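Today's session is about reading a structure prediction critically. Students often jump straight to the picture, but the first step is always the sequence itself: look for stretches that repeat, for charged clusters, for runs of hydrophobic residues. Only then move on to the predicted structure, which in these notes is written as discrete structure tokens rather than atom positions. Here is the chain we will use throughout the hour.
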Amino acid sequence: MIAAYGLARGDDFGIPWMLSADVIDAAPLMAVSMHAVGVVRRWRARVSAMKNMVHAHNARAVRFVSWLGFEVHKDPVGPRGEFRLFTWERGNV
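Below is the predicted structure for this chain, in token form.
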């Protein structure tokens, strides 16, 4: 297995999450990206908003989340301020 992902439910929003092994770097980028686009599209049909955090120092993850259409906020959040909030709202698209 190279990755696991899902959409948890908050009070009035979805919480997208993904864990991956380093071997994901060897997977074909286009295949991973196109699969992710389809998954996020289905999530957007189920919820009106999504939010979670991404580690601020993981530049690749920050770019990927942004590429998927999430807004990555600039202000640090979370433990020791090491994370950045990312959000998506149906009305903002």
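Discussion point for the tutorial: The chain is about 30% helix and 40% strand.
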